[in-house]
Amino acid sequence: METLPIAIVGLNFGRHIIQSIVNGEAGEHMRLAAVCDLDEAKARQFAEQYGVPFYTDLDELLHNEAIPAIGLYTGPVGRATLLDKIISAGKDVMTTKPFELDCAAGLAVLRKAKTMGRVIHLNSPAPCWSPDLALVNAWQEQHNLGRPVGCNLSVWVRYHEQADGSWYDDPVKCPVPPVFRLGIYLINDLVRIFGEAETVSVLSSRLFTGRPTADNGLLSIRFKNGALASIYASFCVEDGDHYRNSMALNFERGTVYRNMGPARATTAGDPRAEMSLIMGSGQTPRAVVEEEFASATSGDYQWDTFAAAVRGEPIGETTSPETIIAGLRIIEAMTQADQTGGTAAVKPVE
What is the pLDDT of residues 264-309, one digit of tens each? Predict the structure, then answer.
């Protein structure tokens, strides 16, 4: 099937998306048609490198009727305003996490897009269940695991960043950065599993980074259904297991592990998730009941789904605006808890 033209807006992070389109899996579905950035020199450089037109003004780009899709990779602050402008111009959008800091504005634009029949997709939470979480759902039913009651998750890497005056340096725009920038994937996983949260608490510290913000973070969450979860996220660990998004998910009658422990059948860059299910009781010994590789991990861009949605093809039930904002409500409460040194209630999605 013919690939869809897409323009990439925001070339700091957007350069990685361009690479995926030009040299990676995204290129099976999308075709780079233009680039856009406020920095003219940067926009011109990418345009010349990839042989496409460049823009420094979003409004001008949106007048190009030959481009039906926009990849929006600016920072999260004020993203809802840009999304509103894009969908109002009749374009569909792929964007990234974290979606927004303003929950009300984020919810409004997502609901507006749904009403208009326009497409706004993210990588996290993705529009459709990712293979790893879909496998968890299947095992839960197949093995009668009961309710999920708790979860421990972790993600780490070692960054050597320096202050540059960007939103990464601002504790308001980027609260508890390891959790906000990396742990957001895990927050969105938890919302898909447990639903809306009730209360959060957070600890953070600054150990190595050259930025004025934290590089080590621990978030605890109590969900409305009584489940408890914790997320450890850090920019301080270099061990070859970066970005693993490890998970130990406890059910009443079993535990599902994702990318846990020192044994690795996969290598860095492998998109698959190593999944296993452990069960046992007073009557039956502990056993590894299931072991499987999920073809992808939550947080991956679902370009095939996006392209199908832009073409108007049916893609089934997708992540609701309310589910997307439920993750952002946790971030909102985390920001408050970090500023006060205590706990904070999570506002409901209304």
Answer: 777 767 789 999 999 998 888 999 999 999 998 899 999 999 999 9
Strand partners, 118: none
Claim: this prediction has a pTM higher than 0.85: yes
Direct distance between the N- and C-terminal alpha carbons of the chain, in angstroms, rounded to an integer:
40
Contact criterion met (CB below 8 Å) for 82 and 107: no
Tell me which amino acid residue 45 is. Q
Q: How far apart are CA 251 and CA 34, in angstroms?
A: 47
Q: Which residues 6+ apart lie within 8 Å of 201 measured at CB?
A: 219, 220, 337, 342, 343, 344
Cβ atoms of residues 193 and 137 within 8 Å: no
The DSSP code sequence of 223-258 is: ETTS-EEEEEEESB--SS-TT--EEEEEETTEEEEE
Amino acid 67 reads I
Segments in 119-259 forming alpha helices (H)? 131-142, 177, 184-194
**What is the mean predicted confidence (pLDDT) over 38-57?**
97
Cα 212 from Cα 277, distance rounded (Å): 41
What is the tens place of the pLDDT at every residue in 102-153?
Answer: 999 999 999 999 999 999 999 999 999 999 999 999 999 999 999 999 999 9
Q: How many C-beta neighbours within 10 Å does residue 238 have? A: 12
Residue count of the chain: 350
Those residues whose C-beta lies under 8 Å from the C-beta of residue 73, and which sit 6 or more positions away, are: 8, 9, 10, 11, 12, 13, 14, 17, 95, 96
Amino acid letter, residue 128: C
* Beta-carbon count within 10 A of 229 CB: 26
